[in-house]
Amino acid sequence: MKYYLIVGEASGDLHASHLMAALQDADPKAEFRFFGGDLMKAVGGTLVKHYRELAYMGFIPVLLHLRSIFSNMRFCKQDIIEWQPDVLILVDYPGFNLNIAKYIHSHTQIPVYYYIAPKIWAWKEYRIKNIRRDVDELLSILPFEVEFFEGKHHYPIHYVGNPTLDEVTAFEASHPRDFHHFVSTNGLTDKPIIALLAGSRKQEIKDNLPLMIDAAQSFIDYQMVLAGAPGIDPAYYQSFLKNADIHVLYNQTYHLLQHADAALVTSGTATLETALFHVPQVVCYYLSFGKIISFLKKRLLHVKYISLVNLIAGKEVVQELVADSMTVANARAELSKLLHDLTYRRQTQEGYEEVAHRLGTPGAPLKAARIIIDTIGKSLD
What we know:
By secondary structure, the protein is α/β, with parallel strands linked by helices. It contains 18 helices and 13 strands. β1 (2-6), α1 and β2 (31-36) form a beta-alpha-beta unit. It starts with a strand and ends with a helix.
């Protein structure tokens, strides 16, 4: 069968690449065409556009690139129609993908599948109307989404498990922990590590990294190691590091988390990855005009938490410092508790175990691939 996939950022590239590999295993004749990234390209098929040409975050960047965004949308729609895939698979990235879904649903008979459901339970819940109208099958990777979509909105979905669990499980199985080898290979010292995961977008890094550094550098018995995000130029990081003694490691986030004693992490998939590696963490998400954002968050967001760890657990497992609560003093105090209070660390670890239990067993890409192939096969019969 012919599969057309669309992703808009690095995490989507990772998850889609594993889905493609699973589809390939189940369907040896699989053909792929996609808006994606290097990981998807490595699996095989035709990379039409790289996600770096699509990813804009925030009101001003989006406004400044509207012409490019609309041009990419028009091109994508036409390309899908000309290639005539057996299925269109959208991966997260709802602002772009729901627009594509609407067009393809109204202009073709191509079935539209969504892998990694849009997080409308947090923001823009009205999009359920678009999903109900334009998406044929919705595949979820978060267990609490079942109640939201099926219980609240009576829209059936498939919970397939969480691909991050697969990725971490596979990594740990193939990479036994060896702290001495890790630090010596990367030019680090033998001090225990505080990991800094400052996000994958420039604005996130600009807002959060300086505060993270100020909070962590007072712990002189530890070394700070920053996870470099794909697509971020090293020179951009250097503008914030200045004279701080920090190593930046690219393409080694899982290695870093495997060997870290604690972490400062921006919200997103990284919080779940950190939890699955059992690293105590502080969730840091500073925003400009913090008090205004905090006011709006309390009134417009439909969820109590912003980190996947707490959302999945349904309670506060990790401390979230958001908007005006993200200060150096608060981050330093929480980090101190995680590093020195053994009872507090143990409580965090117990919360992590509950999160892992709720996610279920590994195998999300394989389960998703089987659902896609089986349901498409039935529609083609």
